Amino acid sequence: MELRSNGNLVLELNEMITILAGGTGSVKLVRGIASQRSDVNVISNVGDNYWLYGMYVCPDIDTIIYGLADLLDYERGWGIQKDTFGFLRQMEVFGEETWFRIGDRDAATHLIRTNMLKNGKNLSDITKWMCEKFAVEAKVIPVTDNSIETRITTNKGELHLQEYWVKYRGRDKVEGIQYIGADKARPNPEAINAMHDSELVIIAPGNPLTSIGPMLSIKGIRKELSKIKKKVVAVSPLIGDKAFSGPAAQYLQAAGIEVSSFGLAKMYSDVCANIVIDTKDKALTKKIQNLDIKVYETKLKMNNKIAEQALASYVLNQVHV
Ligand code: FO1
After folding, report:
1. 281 lines ligand 1 (CB under 6 A)
2. For a designed S-S bond to 63, which of 23, 25, 47, 86 qualifies (C-beta 3.0 to 4.6 A apart)?
3. Which neighbouring-strand residues pair with 40?
4. Could you please report the per-residue DSSP string of 293-320?
């Protein structure tokens, strides 16, 4: 750390950075940060993990690993580029439901992970092993080795997140969100240490309630973040009242949270003292500052690699904690 003449502390290269991340909404910033720093930890959400055909699918962990390995299908935001779907077609022939599109190479990831779990390995060790196999330098750390399941209550009943969003295409009215198992989940000690030892902790612009929310619902994680909140910065996934992608707005509305970067800042106010919002949301700055949160404004939309790098560089170089 270096003390600038204006009194701000600035980060120097090679200092440890930790990012709390979901999948599709978070991976672009994670990739941008990892391309500019060598000591990066990614604490990964496990709330949307899903058992399918006897395989344990961990979408957020895999999206981050594929993204960092440059294998991710960027159009879709999940799965492996140019993957084929022969396995899925055969499952259809066998009369199985095939709404969750598992590619052939992707299936190998789920199958080997499941076998390793059955042989007594925990998710952290398996994820470490996966990072090595995919030649990913950053550490990907599941937020917990225990099970957390994000379930969506709709006007038609309760569903796993993947069923609500992928099977039924988010068509029913959301009435609530639950993180089953979060109260008993132990935070991953590696995640706690990573946050504690990092110079900067970033909350990625993932879905606040289904990507970041399950992690914050683990007591030890929320407690550690609130202890270190001065060095925590959240990057908003919203511009105005719209999310870049996915159903964040529906979920926030259902939870009674204002759908804006102000609503988000209020929701995160006990765990972060800094937020990056879009320049189009300038008008919210004063209101957010009144929550005792430092506000940074820049262009948030990452529609190509240059924009990814630019936002990562802004967070690393302009946010002074
Ligand atoms: N999302 C979809 O919208 N449709 C799919 O068929 C689908 C398959 C899929 C397979 C593996 C995987 O790791 C992710 C997959 N996703 C799919 C993405 C996933 O449902 C969510 O976007 C994440 O859980 C949210 O981060």
Report:
1. no
2. 23
3. 17
4. -EEEEE-----SHHHHHHHHHHHHHH--
Cα 165 from Cα 161, distance rounded (Å):
6
Check residue 244 and give its pLDDT: 86
C-alpha radius of gyration, the chain, whole number = 19
- The helix (run of H) or strand (run of E) holding residue 232 is strand 232-235
What is the architecture, at CATH level 2, of domain 2-318?
A: 3-Layer(aba) Sandwich (3.40)
Whose alpha carbon is nearest atom 4 of ligand 1? Answer: 166
Alpha helices in 177-304 (DSSP H): 189-197, 213-216, 219-227, 248-254, 261-267, 285-289
Q: pLDDT (tens digit, 9 = 90+) per residue, 208-230?
A: 999 999 999 999 999 999 999 99
Q: Is the shortest distance between the CB of 142 and ligand 1 below 6 Å? A: no
pLDDT band at 58 (very low <50, low <70, confident <90, very high): very high
What does each C-alpha distance from 114 to 52, 117, 189, 284, 304 come to in angstroms?
11, 5, 23, 46, 34
Decide whether any atom of ligand 1 lies within 6 Å of the 169 Cβ.
Answer: no
